[in-house]
Amino acid sequence: xxxxxxxxxxxxxxxxxxxxxxxxxxxxxxxxxxxxxxxxxxxxxxxxxxxxxxxxxxxxxxxxxxxxxxxxxxxxxxxxxxxxxxxxxxxxxxxxxxxxxxxxxxxxxxxxxxxxxxxxxxxxxxxxxxxxxxxxxxxxxxxxxxxxxxxxxxxxxxxxxxxxxxxxxxxx
Length: 172
Ligand code: NI
Hints:
By secondary structure, the protein is α+β, with helices and mostly antiparallel strands.
């Protein structure tokens, strides 16, 4: 397992739509292990493959609390089947936007279809922090960031700050 460098805002790769995964093979499972290693090292509770420079439809999460056993979950080609009317608000952060946090409102419960690391199709119903985390990560697969869910003014400030830090001209 290898800890990979994280892709940071405003890297245009974060805006790319990730491509579906064709098969679960040894190469893919190595990528999964690298993602878990990178997520735990950061530390974070979720990571999409694009965040380590591989725009494929794959994400890992672990919402176990501190002191609890690790509980890694792998979602390949995840699709949101249903979203609840009920909403919940969490303060979100992102390993690609370090040290910035903001409250985001999302559906409180989602049903997600995906392929597991066993190569089989699964359907899970998620609520609480897991529901928010999975929606955040699935957004990454579509080139969407959590700052897209906050006010335009706040978003532009964050992008400006990270663009300045990266020493690059602002993308248009
Ligand atoms: Ni993120």
